[in-house]
Specification:
With 473 residues, the chain is of the alpha/beta class. The chain has 16 helices and 18 strands. It has 2 domains: 341 residues, TIM Barrel (Alpha-Beta Barrel), CATH 3.20.20.80; 97 residues, Sandwich (Immunoglobulin-like), CATH 2.60.40. Helices cover 34% and strands 25% of the residues. Helix 9 runs parallel beside helix 11. Its EC number is 3.2.1.8.
Length: 473
């Protein structure tokens, strides 16, 4: 049996490095690192401490147009999956005519916010253009190879892992899905897809992804057989378990089933987690949902070779579930108003964080907004203070149409920025000069955009809120 290649995501390496830095700074009397201090109050911090991914499937439109959505995605998750922007119909709608605007924006956002990307997906029987489905076997294979090469080459070194093939087994008795891929190319299309992806991006982890394979059943048995063959050719690194679950139906055999794939030398990953409820959902059902979430995430947290968990959307209203399962919904961690559900707290608990979801000290302190009249104004607020640091949120308001903005302020005390998202520039000294990231510089008059950062405070004093100057850039 061949074991999968050793490959560690940037996120895991960052967590390991952070652990070393924390020990070193503590020995020097400088206090805990921001990452570890914040680990008890955010999903991202807790997952970083475990060396796991906590991911979310993101919408390009929401990232572009909803500042609150962007801020939560940046602060609560260390891994992103494009919900639709990397699928075939989004990247190559016509033969040889590629468009990467949406996919590029999501990858750029992840890089700006120090997040990894799990790519989804190269080969699927849905959301594949009709021109592909109409091809003959030889032509279809050529198109598949060319498509995988083009997309994988574009994001080589920027996407950490890929769902190479998606949903290749049917729901009935473990048979192969009767897709246009199978009819035109036979089962060999799976091997060809993995061979192509391996050659196109040798350092990315390659996954086979499917639903209803969480339990030990006929469908997961067939995935296991396929996985064995791919492992023997050194073409497979992991198995993705979508985990679109129903309330109260987390399989009793889920842990042992994932373990048998780990025993093949593979990573496992919960790739599309949601837990749907018959609507309207009452408080007891939401509490049961929280318990189900905690069980699934705890399973991954405790399994060394589980690379992480991705929830399939941010808010209940963003979910695909009601459109496919009428009368069912409320499957995610956030309500439509961006408030956290009990399921959020349970996931935080499962990752080893503080399940209250509350900061450990006083309420946030916010500045009084500076006077309007200039091209833009900006405010800072303290969101999550702790003994040696704090998380800040910042809002930039456009008083005129902006194509870029610049903010500056001077810390009055020992506060220093340790990491930031959705802003760039000279950020680490006493005087901060920040400019917009590539995706949030254009702001219509009267609209806002956000950025955020963590600070350390060597003297342990209360986090201050300096006045910010904002100018168009």
């Amino acid at each position: 049996m061949l074991l999968s290649r050793p490959h560690h995501s940037r996120q895991r390496r960052r967590a390991l490095i952070a652990g070393v830095v924390t020990v070193a700074t503590a020995a020097l009397g400088l206090g805990l690192s921001t990452q570890f201090a914040s680990a008890q109050t955010t999903l991202r911090g807790a997952a970083d401490e475990l060396g796991k991914d906590i991911g979310v499937a993101v919408s390009y439109d929401q990232l572009q147009n909803n500042a609150t959505y962007r801020n939560i995605v940046a602060t609560e998750f260390n891994s992103l999956t494009a919900e639709n922007a990397m699928k075939w119909d989004a990247t190559e709608p016509s033969d040889g005519q590629y468009t990467f605007t949406q996919a590029d924006a999501i990858v750029n956002f992840a890089e700006d916010n120090d997040q990894t990307v799990h790519g989804h997906t190269f080969v699927w029987h849905q959301q594949t253009p009709q021109w592909v489905q109409n091809l003959s076997g030889t032509a279809m294979q050529a198109a598949m190879v060319e498509h995988i090469n083009t997309v994988a080459n574009r994001y080589e070194g920027r996407v950490d892992s890929w769902d190479v093939v998606n949903e290749v087994v049917s729901d009935s008795n473990g048979a192969m899905r009767d897709s246009f891929w199978l009819r035109a190319m036979g089962e060999g299309y799976i091997t060809t897809a993995f061979q192509t992806a391996r050659a196109a991006d040798p350092n990315a982890d390659l996954y086979i992804n499917d639903y209803s394979i969480e339990a030990d059943n006929a469908k997961s048995d067939r995935i296991y057989t396929i996985a064995q063959g791919l492992v023997n050719q050194n073409l497979l690194d992991g198995v993705g378990f979508q985990s679109h679950l129903i309330l109260g139906q987390v399989p009793s055999t889920m842990e042992s089933n994932l373990q048998r794939f780990v025993d093949l030398g593979l990573k496992v990953r919960i790739t599309e987690l949601d837990i749907r409820i018959t609507m309207p959902a009452d408080s007891s059902e939401l509490a049961r949902q929280a318990q189900d979430y905690e069980r699934v995430v705890s399973l991954c947290a405790e399994l060394a070779d589980c690379s992480g968990v991705t929830v399939w959307g941010l808010r209940d209203g963003d979910s695909w579930v009601p459109g496919v399962f009428p009368g069912e919904g409320a499957p995610l961690l956030y309500n439509d108003d961006f408030s956290k559900k009990s399921a959020y707290d349970s996931v935080l608990d499962a990752l080893g964080g503080d399940g209250t979801g509350e900061p450990p000290t006083s309420d946030p302190v916010t500045t009084t907004p500076p006077p309007t009249g200039s091209g833009c104004t900006a405010t800072l607020s303290v969101q999550s203070p702790w003994n040696t640091g704090a998380t800040y949120s910042a809002t930039v308001r456009a008083n005129q149409a902006l194509t870029g903005w610049r903010v500056t302020w001077t810390w009055p005390g020992s506060e220093r920025i340790s990491n930031a998202w959705s802003v760039q520039g000279t950020l680490t000294g006493a005087t901060v000069t920040g400019t917009n990231a590539g995706y949030n510089g254009t702001v219509a008059a009267g609209q806002t955009t956000t950025f955020g950062f963590n600070i350390t405070k060597a003297d342990g004093s209360t986090a201050s809120v300096p006045t910010v100057t904002c100018t168009p850039a």
